[in-house]
Amino acid sequence: MAHRPAPRTRRAAVGALAAPLLVATVAGCGIGATGPVHAGAPASGVQRPGSEARTARLYFAGPYGVQSVTRSVDRPPSPQQALELLLEGPTPAERERGLTTQVPPMGGLLTATASDGAVDVFVPVEVSTGELDVTAVSQLACTAAHADVPGDRPATRVDIRIHENLTRSRTPWTVRCGPGGTVTPVTG
Fold first, then answer.
1. Which of 74, 73, 62, 81 has its CA nearest to residue 139?
2. What gap in Å lies between CA 53 and CA 73, rounded to an integer?
């Protein structure tokens, strides 16, 4: 009959064998014993000086809310040009990702005029009656805010004034595009 060591002795024997194995494994993985190494600033979306933006950012409705997509363009689009791209709807590849649009067809009646830090968007429908829902407003406002707007404001600080029924006579709805692609009203 073979003699088995006591449980305590067995644990000590396994520990004695495991310790050198652990040291060899850690030493062989290439991780040195240094602390954090400063590698510079984190990546950002700011383009290099002298380089020109070659994309348009459009906003579509997706399974998890409003989502942005980028499209290659020859030069930075004006708000009007960006909204025209939006009205074309998502590409087949974007539709495969589940993206759609809530912006109704507007038959060439949607117009956008940019000024210093703001864009006036004229729509042929009513926001207040639900003809243009909050998702559609987010799509329009965020697409316009991320276009080439004079004034060098970040897109989240561009005022988007939505004019209902193509009229300047009524007070427009003023909104801003939030970082997540949703709009928030501008008050005061």
1. 62
2. 9
DSSP 33: S
| Full-model pTM | 0.71
pLDDT in tens, 50-102: 445 589 999 999 999 999 999 999 999 999 999 999 999 999 999 999 999 99
Q: Report the amino acid identity of residue 8.
A: R
CB contact set of 58 (below 8 Å; sequence gap of 6+): 68, 69, 70, 71, 82, 85, 86, 139, 143
Number of neighbours of residue 111 by Cβ within 10 angstroms: 17
Contact 170, 128 (CB under 8 A): no
Cα–Cα dist 9/113, whole Å: 83
Beta strands in the chain (DSSP E): 55-62, 65-72, 111-115, 118-122, 159-163, 173-177, 183-185
Angle at 145 between CA 140 and CA 146, to 5 degrees: 105
